[in-house]
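Deviations from the work plan: none for this task. Representative record:
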Amino acid sequence: MYLSSAVRRGIAVLTAAVLLFLYAPIAYLGLLAFNRQRSIIFGGFTLKWWGVAWRDHEVRHALWGSVQTATMATLLALVLGTLASLAVHRYRFFGRTTVSFAVILPIALPGIVTGIALNAAFRQILGVKLGFFTLVVAHATFCLVVVFNNVVARLRRLPGNLEEASADLGGDAFQTFRLVTLPLLRSALFAGGLLAFALSFDEIVVTTFTAGSGFTTLPQFILGNYSRPQRLPVVNVVAITVVLLSIVPAWLAQRISGDVSSAR
Amino acid sequence: MLKPLARWFHRRPLAGLVGLLGAPMAWLVVVYLGSLAALLVSSLYSLDSFTFNVVKHVGLQNYRELWQRPVYARVAMRTLGVAAAVTLVDLVLALPIAFYMAKVATPRVRRALGVALILPLWASYLAKAYAWRTFLDPAGGLLRKTLGWSPGFGLSGVVIVLAYLWLPYAILPIYAGLERLPDSLLEASADLGGRAGVTLRAVVFPILLPAVVAATIFTFSLSLGDYITVGIVGGKTQMIGNVISANFGVNNVPLAAAFAVVPMIIMVIYLVGIRRTGALENL
C-alpha cells in the first residue's frame, strides 16, 4: 500500500505521542521515588527512600509472597496449559469448540466475577480457609489461559510433518514430545510463562477475594500503603524497582520469541 | 521404559485425548465453571437482617432487589457506558501505533517498540492509577499546573485512566493481526489501483476484524469489572464493581454475587455474539 511520506510521518508522530502517554505516569513515579518530601509534588532530590525500602520488613514479606504465588501459579499453568493446547490442537473431538471457549473464560470475564465466584466456591461450597493455597489455585486459573493461548498459537504455525518424521524414524509419543515438540515450543512456553508470571505478580482484584487476611502480596501492600502519606515514597521505590527489574525478562522474551505476537 | 506405554496410547487415541485433556479440563470445569456455579447458587441465598449471617434460604430476593431499586440499573448502565467509551478510546489510540509497528517501522524499531509496549504491563496497575491521581488532582495536580486544566476526579477521569491502563492489551492483538497480514495483499491492492483508503476498507479491515474484536474483549471486560481505579480517580462515581465490593465488604455476599452475575451475563452474550468473527482465536 502506497503511503505518502506525510502520512508516514503523521503515523510516526501519533506513535510517539502514544508512547509518551504510556510512559509519562511511570516516569513521574520514578521521579517521586527520589522525592525529598513525602508528597506527590516533587521537592528536591534524595536517595534515602531506597535505603528505607530495602530495610522494610513489610516490603520484603510482600515481595516474597508475590514471588511465591506467581512462581507456583506459573508452573501449574505451564503444565495444564500445554496439555490442553496439545489436546485442542491435535484431536478433533466432540465439544472441541466448547473446550476452546471454556478455556478463555477466566480472562474474558472481569476479575471481580472470577474473584467473587472463587470466593463463593472456597468458602461456602468447599468450606476451605482462604490463604496461600486458594490464592495459587485462583491465579493458576487465569495464568493457564495465557499459556494455552501462546502454545496453541505456536502449534498452529508449526509444520506437522516434523512430528510425523519423528514417528517414521521410530520415535514413540514421549520421545517425539521430548525431542521434537518441546524444543519447538520452548520459546512460546517461555513467553507464555513470563506473561503468566507478570499477570499474577500484578493481580489485585482476584487476590483480594481469594487470599484471606493471612497472606500478603505486593499489590496488596501497595493498595494498603498508598493512601498513607508517610509510606508513599517507599511504595514509589518498590513500584519503580519492579518496572526496572522487568526490563530484562521483557527484553529476553522479545529476543527469544522474535516477535511480539507470541509474547502474549 | 516408556515404550510400552507409548504403544498402548498409540493404539488408543481416545486414551491419549483423555490423558492430555483430563487434568486441565478437570481444573477448568471443577475449579472455574464450578466456581461460577457456586456464584449463581450463592446469589440465591439471603442475608439474615438480624445477625448479618448468610442464610441458605434459596430464592430470587436478591435479583428482585436489583430489579426494583433504580439505582442498580443506573450503575449498570453507567458501567456499560464507561466500558464502551474506554474501548473506543483504546481502539482509536491502538490502531495507528499497531499499524506503524507492523507496516512502517524498521525491524529494529519494531523490536524496541515491542519491548516498550510490554514494559508498562509490568508496572504495577495500582502505582499507575495512583500516578494518574497525582496528574488529575483538581487542586494542584500536574495537569492543572502545566496545562491549567484538569478533568478532575469523576467519570471522565475514570475513562481516561482505564483507557490508559488497558491500552497495551488493545495494541498487542491488533499488532499481531496486522503482522499476519501479508504485504503482498497491500501491494496487489495498490497495483489494481486501490488508494490507501480503499485498501484499508476492502483489504485490511476484513482481515483485521478478528484481531480488533479480540482487543475489545480485553478493554471491555477489564473496564466492566473495575472498582479499584474507580475508587482512586472516580471521585463519587460508582460502577458495578464498587457496588459488588461494598456489599461484599459488609458481608452481604448474596447481593454481591447477584450483581456479579450481571457483568458475567453481559460478557457471555458478547463472547457468543462475536464467536463467528474468529476473534477468540486471536486472544
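Chain A touches chain B through 94 residues (CB under 8 Å).
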